[in-house]
Amino acid sequence: ELSELEKQFQQRIDAGIRIEPKDWMPEAYRRTLVRQISQHAHSEVVGMLPEGNWVTRAPTLKRKAILLAKIQDEAGHGLYLYSAAETLGVEREDLIADLHAGRAKYSSIFNYPTLTWADIGMIGWLVDGSAIINQVPLCRCSYGPYARAMVRVCKEESFHQRQGYDLLMEMCLNGTPEQKQMCQDALNRWWWPALMMFGPSDNESVHSAQSMKWRIKLFSNDELRQKMVDQTVPQAEYLGLTIPDPDLRWNEERGHYDFGEIDWDEFWAVLAGNGPCNKERLNTRVQAHEQGAWVRDAFMAYAEKQEQRKAK
Ligand code: FAQ
User: Fold this and answer.
1) Nearest CA to ligand 1 atom 30
2) Nearest residue CA, atom 22 of ligand 1?
3) Helix (H, G, I), strand (E, B) or coil at 249
4) ipTM greater than 0.95, yes or no?
5) Distance (Å, rounded) from C-alpha 120 to C-alpha 226?
6) Whose CA is nearest to atom 5 of ligand 1?
7) Which Pfam families does UniProt cross-reference here (predicted)?
8) Single pTM value for the model
9) One digit per residue, pLDDT tens: the chain, 312 residues?
10) Is residue 199 in contact with ligand 1, taking CB distance under 6 Å?
């Protein structure tokens, strides 16, 4: 049974009114947002690692500059998102401590290795492509600071997706047979993990029903996954690549592609920390944080000095 305050809150949501940090909100709404926004922030930051692996090996100066810019954008997204989470009364330091202690999740996709340069194309095309499909609706979600952060993030993700596809067009349409094969191998490895980004199927998704009522989610996991498949298949055809799914076919009646079953055992194993790179990713983050301690100390010392000057 909802209290009077909760009923009024739900009416505001239903009327499409944005919730702002100082508005009353149910504790569970706050907790859900902290969970989702912080996981999203962690994903952006950990997401820099697979691509960072290729900065020193990018094939040309132009590709290196593009890749660096993209990775820096991801750091920026992490920062907007931590700030959005902080409007809900939590401290960034605590969120990061949760990540480093293995208590907080980040997207499963970043636990896979980047073995060749074609993987950089796949991340842009499939991973940023999926991120856009998931995040464009979030620009209209009920929590103001999250929705506003998503507007700029989505613009940047569109550039990221295009750079990935551009890289793949170069290799698949203008490259050597070996380069095209390298792209096919990368697609074979990234396709299924990319579909897993949308989360468990709707009947396994514990948070979806409530999050949709609160308009934190506007579409279900399966709806967004279907959208990704429908949008991506023609793009694969244009590149001349084969999606590694024997069950993939156009369904005239549904007006959508049918596709095969995801290996959910793999998905849950990655979430439980047992993907190919989980330990490596977490160790790298923890080490980067520790090695960056002097920067935080320097900022604090500077801020204190400024305070003391003001006090004089
Ligand atoms: N990985 O009940 P649901 C990017 C967890 S894009 C790990 O369906 P919910 C850009 C879920 O948290 C990637 N965990 O949950 C980029 C929950 O666990 P919990 C980040 C997953 O929240 C590109 C449990 O399973 N994007 O970073 C995953 O309603 C290239 C049950 O699931 C976002 O975070 C998964 N794939 O729906 C950066 C978008 N799926 O918390 C660098 C915002 C599910 O109870 C390079 N987030 N789980 O312990 C969302 O839209 C939602 O949170 C979902 C999950 C759709 C991810």
Assistant:
1) 128
2) 36
3) strand
4) yes
5) 23
6) 199
7) PaaA_PaaC
8) 0.96
9) 889 999 999 999 999 999 999 999 999 999 999 999 999 999 999 999 999 999 999 999 999 999 999 999 999 999 999 999 999 999 999 999 999 999 999 999 999 999 999 999 999 999 999 999 999 999 999 999 999 999 999 999 999 999 999 999 999 999 999 999 999 999 999 999 999 999 999 999 999 999 999 999 999 999 999 999 999 999 999 999 999 999 999 999 999 999 999 999 999 999 999 999 999 999 999 999 999 999 999 999 999 999 999 998
10) yes
CA 65 – CA 148 distance, rounded (Å): 28
Token pair 């202690």 in the structure block, residue:
101
**What is the rounded CA–CA span in Å between residue 236 and residue 133?**
17
What is the rounded distance in angstroms from the CA atom of residue 131 to the CA atom of residue 88? 23
User: In whole angstroms, what is the distance from residue 297 CA to residue 61 CA?
Assistant: 35
Q: How far apart are CA 105 and CA 99, in angstroms?
A: 7
Contact 144, 20 (CB under 8 A): yes
Smallest CA separation from ligand 1 atom 18, residue: 105
Taking residue 208's Cβ as centre, other Cβ atoms within 10 Å add up to: 20
Q: How far is CA 211 from the centre of its chain?
A: 18
Residue from 271, 277, 281 whose mutation best tests the ligand 1 pocket (most atoms within 8 A of CB): 271
Given a contact cutoff of 8 angstroms between Cβ atoms, the answer to whether 50 and 110 are in contact is yes
Amino acid identity for residue 34 in this structure = V
Q: What is the DSSP letter of 262?
A: P
- Give the number of the atom of ligand 1 that is nearest the alpha carbon of residue 217: 51
Report CA(282)–ligand 1 centroid distance (Å): 17
